[in-house]
């Protein structure tokens, strides 16, 4: 497969979340692109193909292209960023870069809304009459805004609050 962001042929692709937009938005890009787009200082040489790939019809690729161009301090990147046309909704998504969360899992990995976490110990759920077993995956978590030690998720059909010290990001 060819990476839709850097145009590298025969690259193994990985599903990469594109936060700040529609729920569960993601793009299938190569591993080096996934690492580079997450970096504050992406390698400009890796993204020379953005001149053609930024015109993708996939909004997630457009957002990744816009965000990556904004991080590259080269004149060619600024020129491309000025040329890039995005509809209003996609431009708002590209500019809505989520700030790093104070919510962290048991290993110190930052958590964001929509992540999947796994319980690292059995948890007795008060008021629900069941125990959430170690190894249970909790999909599409929500962050408790005023308490970075708490997240919310659905386990066995019940919406519960979970302490971040008892989960690890998957």
TrEMBL record:
Domain of life: Bacteria
Keywords per UniProt: Hydrolase
Record's signal peptide: none
Keyword Hydrolase: yes
Family matches, as SUPFAM superfamilies: Prokaryotic SH3-related domain (SSF82057)
Protein YjdM C-terminal domain ranges (all copies): 103-169
GO molecular function, one term: hydrolase activity
Pfam family, one: YjdM
InterPro entries for this protein: YjdM_C
Protein name: Phosphonoacetate hydrolase
Lineage of the species this protein comes from: Bacteria, Pseudomonadati, Pseudomonadota, Alphaproteobacteria, Rhodobacterales
């Amino acid at each position: 497969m060819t990476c839709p962001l850097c145009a590298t042929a025969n690259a193994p692709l990985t599903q990469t979340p594109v936060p700040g937009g529609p729920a569960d938005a993601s793009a299938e890009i190569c591993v080096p692109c996934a690492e580079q787009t997450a970096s504050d200082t992406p390698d400009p040489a890796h993204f020379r193909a953005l001149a053609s790939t930024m015109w993708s019809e996939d909004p997630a690729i457009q957002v990744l292209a816009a965000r990556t161009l904004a991080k590259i301090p080269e004149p060619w990147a600024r020129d491309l960023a000025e040329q890039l046309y995005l509809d209003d909704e996609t431009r708002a998504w590209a500019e809505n870069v989520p700030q790093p969360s104070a919510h962290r899992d048991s290993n110190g990995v930052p958590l964001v809304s929509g992540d999947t976490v796994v319980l690292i110990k059995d948890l007795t759920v008060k008021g629900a009459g069941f125990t959430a077993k170690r190894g249970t995956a909790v999909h599409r978590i929500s962050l408790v805004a005023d308490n970075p030690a708490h997240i919310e998720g659905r386990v066995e059909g019940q919406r519960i609050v979970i302490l971040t010290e008892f989960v690890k990001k998957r």
